[in-house]
Design goal:
Length: 481
Amino acid sequence: MTAHPDGLVVGVDAGTTALKVLVVDAATGRPVADAVREYPTRSPEPGAHEQDPADWWEAAVAALRSALDGLDASAVRAVGMSGHMHSLLLIGADDEPVAPAMTWADRRVAEQTRRLGGDPAFRRHTGNDVVDAFTAPKLAWFAERHPDALARARRLVLAKDYLRFRLTGRWATDRTDAAGTLLYDVTTREWRRELWETVGADPALAPEVLRPEEMAGAITTAAAAATGLVMGTPVIAGAGDVPAVVLGSGVVASDQISVNVGTAAQIMGLSPLPDPGAGFVFLSATGESFVTMASLYAAGASIRWAERTLLAGSPIGDAVIQAPAGSAGLTYLPFMFGSTVPIKNDRARAAFIGQEERHGSAHLARAVLEGVAFACADAVKAVVDVVGTPRELRIVGGVTRSAEWCRTFAAAVGPEVDVVRVEGGSARGAVALAAVGAGLWTLGDVSAAAEPPIRPADDVEAAEIVAAYARYREACDRLLR
């Protein structure tokens, strides 16, 4: 068993489709172990995207035990949390969910989104337009559809908050996840009673709000027996996955932008003002700054669809190299769950444009990969409009492991800005918050090593990608309005 004299730090991240545990050496900041466990999503009716929180806990137990296997659990100095934002999870008096959790991808709430979107109080207090992804329209939908279940609820929490309760026995959220509900004022940092009442819910459901780096509790006897962690190990409040990714990717200055491309993609920059621009605004995981974010709901989701449907389960990387840059004129709009940039349109759906008989599965696959890259480039432009031109884009996430995707994205954003890949993400952000909260690191210690800047293979490839990006933007202008 390798010794870690300065201790270990653990990050637990409940993503949209899987939970990840990351263990880091507190002295060096280097990963020591990690583990991932997936959990199912259910769709009992059109537009539904539900998960059972018990599956989150089962995944957390399995991932923690796997990651800690062979390590000295008594060396763990702190545990940090992050998780997918905007879900609706209502907890009853027995500390159990009154219904399955509705995730951010649930799209049954269009009517409620339109109603709440007509109330200027939401934009005034939260800085954001109301869209289907947020918690508030889901709560309004639930209040109308399931009033008896709502009456049994005692609190509303987010994914990481449920797991933290299972670890510590304490119910709370943090300010970043609170802001992501659209029920919390991002300027005064308090719940807004009138917003709760507008959605038809009792403001008493609002949980206690902690700072992301604040100690929320300690591992209980039951949690220790389940996970392998040591009873009494501090657990830090943590943050929603968007602010956690910003921190985890090493973005700590206004001239850097974080590009996280997982199931969804989030492009984020730091701003002193709550200005969403064409995107959204959240609270940062550290300090008093704000995160300006533009997103793509179906990034990795689009690529997984292509692998499953077009490629019979084969990796997309094996297919795209068989088609030329630009996909021979084929364009894909990756809006399976609606669009946010260049236009917010929850009714938008994915489409291939310009398909011809000559296009085969490799062209279709490459068009999907390029469409995701182009949508991310559009999101970068939306964030730049608020925070200014950065010197560096730090890219992270499963999709960024594709060299073809990275070169396509770099060509689309242009040569003026360095695009570098980092090993970060929301689990790394959870680790950083745990280390800061436990007094092991300062914010100045939070960094992530970056690879050399990414460039397209050659000028010819770059020109083809730029031309394809222009076709993509033209298609968006024509079809999204």
